[in-house]
Amino acid sequence: MKKIGIGYENYKRFIDENLYYVDKTLLIRDLVEKGGEVTLFTRPRRFGKTLALSMLRTFFEKEYDSGGNIVDNRRYFEGKKIMDAPEEILSMMGRYPVIKLSLKSAKQPSFRSAALRLRDEIASEFNRHIYLADSEKLTDDEIQIFKSLSLRAKWDDLNSDEDYKKEIDRYSTALITLSECLKKHHGENVIVLIDEYDVPLENAYYEGFYKEMVGFIRSLFESVLKTNDALQFGVVTGCLRISKESIFTGLNHLEISSVYNSTFEEGFGFTQDETGQMLKDYGIENRISEAKEWYDGYLFGETEIYNPWSVIKYVKSIAIDHVKFPMPYWANTSSNTIIKDLVWNADEEMKRQLDVLISGGTIEKEIHEDITYDDIHESEDNLWNFLFFTGYMRKESERREENKIFVTMRIPNREIASIYDNQISAWFKKRVKETSKGELNRAVLEGDTDGIAKYVTGLLKKSISVFDSGESFYHGFFLSLLYEVPDYAPRSNREQGDGRPDIVLYPENPRDPAIIFEIKVRKKFSEMEDGLKEAYDQITDRKYEEGVLDDGYLGVKSYGICFCRKSCIVGALPG
Q1: Is the CB of residue 386 less than 8 Å from the CB of residue 376?
Q2: How large is the average pLDDT for residues 483-496?
Q3: DSSP of 57-100, one letter per residue?
Q4: 352 with 461: CB under 8 angstroms?
């Protein structure tokens, strides 16, 4: 079996090291035939955007080795789907100078450090084309300007704000200089590839310098993508389309491909056939239904798509490492701050909608792609749009009303459900911790079963539903409420009698009675009384009270508690 390249983003390494590669080379053909002068691909994180740009660069770039000889990259595409493309497309292989820039290094705590990181990335691209410094086709002035941009100033040498501002301004328009030099040297227009353009914007939003970063990115884009006569075409990737008014001002030739569009839908992520073939290649085709439940559910245009990062991690874990169960791999690869914000700041209506979604239901929202990080929280619709376009929701159906589009959406799969689950559980635990428990403590000590039920039900009703609504969740939840009962210490699943009662409150004063709670869960409200009876029978049949008394305590009281969704009833053991 071929090695699975976890985390590999360089296309050449997949071929050179004979890694398993899902052939996405037809994106080259589709880009030439369907793309614009500038094409923006927005897809969720870890869906293959960086690898796709590496593949595009390998195909189109006129590349030189360290000795100044032209590199023939044709071998990297032998046997690939693109080799069946028309000759007019194949003739473009190795023809163009390429500028490739990744903006992900700008995830920094201040605008100054973020902008200088971007400056360093741009300067590195100048150095990748350092042969231009010896080009006989450039004038002395052009070579001097080129060299000055390749030899960036050291961070420590930027002593004043004026020095820093001049340096940043210089590099915000530097790519147009590099484009012009490349065109003059090669006699061909330039292809510009910009990866993860919205990473610095998202980071700037959360770090508090969004407007400054917007200004820098706008200048960068306008110079190289808008007013660049040396441009053959450009490709930009990110997770979200940032509003035309803030970043893509004036780029009227921009072709946008998002999860909503029906173009390039198979270029990112894995299709059903690709996923099935990979599982078959590694001998686990019998687990396709499991993979579908966990990692399918994305709809790009009208094409069903699996999360590629999660699929390759899943296949490696199951087929090679022999792990038994699927895991939420994608959940740990990127920031889920937006989910946390959604859950922790939800008003009553949003909680209701989350309840519907978590229960497997759908909600309908108007969608629009012209949003910015700066206005995500300006309205509920902006937040749902962000979740939809970044992979945390999927389209179930749509309808149009005049010039508006309304999408019925749901949570895509079990993996994404776990992200909501984790944030909701954390929110709920914090809510429980901050809630005064005086009334509950009184009810527990006085044996007020109605008071216990009223307090617990009230707290549950203020919450958002959780996926794990089994006994283990309610057990942990109720146990957490009992740690503040004065003069008592709760213990969970400690052996007593012929079994292990769910929770026992042991008194510090042995003359006070110990208190037993046996917990049951029912799916229907009509079955809750039966749940109490089962709890009573278990306490009696397994002699929990006798076990407590044998430990030397002078008395014991026993209670059954039955949960159903956000309600509970409590009863004392009869007799």
Answers
A1: yes
A2: 90
A3: HHHHB--B-TTSPBP--GGGGTTSGGGGS-HHHHTTTT-B-EEE
A4: no
Is the CATH number of domain 25-257 3.40.1130? Answer: no
- In degrees rounded to 5, what are phi and psi of residue 16? -60, -35
Supply the pLDDT for residue 418.
Answer: 86
If you average pLDDT over residues 196-203, what whole number do you get? Answer: 90
Fold of 435-572: tt1808, chain A (3.90.1570)
- 504 forms beta bridges with 491, 516
Give the CA distances from residue 549 to residues 505, 552, 553, in Å, rounded to whole numbers and listed in that order: 13, 5, 5
Helix (H) or strand (E) holding 406, with range, is strand 404-410
50: helix, coil or strand? helix
| SS3 (DSSP) at 152 | coil
* Structure token pair of residue 247: 């970043």
pLDDT of residue 385: 86
Answer yes or no: is pLDDT of 575 > 70: no
- Predicted confidence (pLDDT) at residue 336 exceeds the cutoff of 80: no
Residue 249 DSSP class: T
Cα four-point dihedral sign 253, 258, 262, 264: positive
Residue pair 374/202 in contact by the 8 Å Cβ criterion: no
> Structural domain boundaries of the chain?
25-257, 270-332, 337-417, 435-572
Query: Crossing angle for the helix pair 288-295 and 308-315, nearest 10 degrees?
Result: 140
Name the 3-class secondary structure at 136: coil
Nearest Cα to Cα of residue 482 among 521, 446, 527, 452: 452
Indicate whether 343 pLDDT > 80.
Answer: no
* Token pair recorded at residue 56: 């595009």
Backbone angles phi, psi at 433, to 5 degrees: -65, -35
Cβ atoms < 10 Å from Cβ of 432:
15
